[in-house]
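Researcher: Quick one. two chains, 381 residues in total.
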Amino acid sequence: MAMRPEDVLKTIAEARGTAICVPTMTTAPAWRGLAPGDLSVTCTGFMGGASSIGLGLALARPDRRVIVFDGDGSLLMQLGSLATIAGAAPRNLTHLLFKNGVYHTSGAQNIPGGDGVDFVLMAKAAGYRGGFVIDELDELKRRMPAILTEAGPLLVELRTTLAAETPMTARGGVPFPQQVADLRTKLLRPRAAAR
Amino acid sequence: MPESIPSSLVIDELKNTFREARAAHAAEVEEPPQHDHLGWVLSVPDTHQKTVLAALDKEQTIRVLTCSTEDEANAIAAGLWIGGEPVALMIQHAGLYASVNTLRGVAIDGRVPIFYMIGLLQREKDKDPLESRHSMVRYCEPLLDLFGVPHARLEGPDDVHRIGEYYRLSRQRKGPTAVLVGLETI
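Model:
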């Protein structure tokens, strides 16, 4: 049974603590309502880049968990990132894959391979330390502590319904360059800002 | 006439550049450093710079991450920069062409300083790159100009200082800059 992405995001928001989050595409509108102005940066304008931004953050900041909210269509655009992430082997990276089988933002066209693409198998074959599927909210809540602490890279395929909003139906939010600057400031604490 | 640049000169310049970047960073932020090494090179292997990549394999103070695509390298660089890490990309011109949307979205629109070292594979020694008979050589500088990316040529050992200069320029302007490696490094 598929989960509502909004319920999944609410569960993550309640559990993530000081983790850095990297939403993209249809997770972005709901996330900015759940976690405004926090330690997040939305991958927008270069579809497929969320996992790589997350990798860079995870390598830069091994003291923090980094959680990527990827999409199935997005990951397919830079599928090689599975191998790059596995090669870098960041223990602090959780790669959540919101799988709905379609390119929701552009009109819900089926992704290549539709629901049959096994991302967990691909991540494990690439060299991720772990991966599994969750399709029920209760199971997600039960396993969330482990998802946020187990040695990564870890890929969790989340079977979800379509989101209530997409970046096309719920425009707005903080522009990407401002998100980048804000997150950098929060993580590094410039001396002038710290005083 | 262009000359090949020894890999040791490139690596020494990168080390000096990263060392300087770390010192400047330490003076600017409260957050203590998370790493002992000087910085990162993100590479999608480039034939033109293969001697540098080979030498970097033995280098302890610079971490090298080989990426599957230049798109990834751009986004990883953004994450590293947000987290306070010095980083340079080593790619070839074909990789630049393959990743222009990410160059635009991350480095230009996102105002993320990304410094590229781009190998001009098949550049002829006796021709200006703009007059090359190979489109992959000929189009590189015009493409960078189209996107407003400041760039300089590394035409020999005397130009190695451009690495530090253009790295710092990328930080100053919060955007992309590039140096073009004219001949294969040695």
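The mean pLDDT of chain A is 93.
Researcher: Thanks, that's what I needed.
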